[in-house]
Structure formats: C-alpha cells, structure tokens
Amino acid sequence: MADYLQVSTATESQGQAVELARSVVMSRLVAGAQIIGPVISAFWHKGEFGTGEEWQLLLKTSADRYGDVESHLLKHRPWTNPEVSAVPIVAGSEAYLRWVARTTAPDSTA
User: Fold this and answer.
1) CA distances (Å), 46 to each of 38, 49, 104, in order?
2) pLDDT in tens, 86-102
3) What is the pTM of this model?
4) Helix, strand, or coil (residue 45)
5) How far apart are CA 17 and CA 25, in angstroms?
C-alpha cells in the first residue's frame, strides 16, 4: 500500500462540503481538503438511473489514517451509502509529503 492517499467523497451542498472538510481537517485526520463543485453526477440508486448536483471533496492523508478518515466521513454524512474511496499518491514533492505525514500524525500539533 502507498504511504499517502487521496480520499474522495461528495456532499449534496457546498455548505455540507465546507463543514465536512472543516471537521476532518480540524481532527487532523487529513492534512488538507479541496472542494470542487458543483459537479453533476450520474448514478444508479435503488434500481433507478438518476443525476444530481454534488460537491466533491479531495482529502490528502497518510495511508495509516485511512480507517479513521473513512469512519469519520461515514459518521458525518447524511447518506446511507456515501462514496468514500481512496487512490494512492504515487509521487509528490518531498516537502509536501513530509507535511502530510507531520500533519496527520496521531500526536500532531503541527
């Protein structure tokens, strides 16, 4: 597994996205969050095709914090089955990756 991950999720509104980003960054589970939106999503839900407007969050964290990040996102989301997925960060500037590691360390005060 990669040492660093970019975790993504989505919310129904910009306000929800900002609050979720704030809560996960303030808890030091992720080093930073970017909010992109609105985006239009197409999906299957309960056997029906749908589209909707969402706000996407991209979160940077260390791989060892993923379980805590996922738990936090699932706890603070209104949807029953929200998207929570992660992709490895396979390369990045050394200084940036040190910042991610330092910021997300369980005992961090950085």
Assistant:
1) 23, 8, 36
2) 999 999 999 999 999 99
3) 0.89
4) strand
5) 12
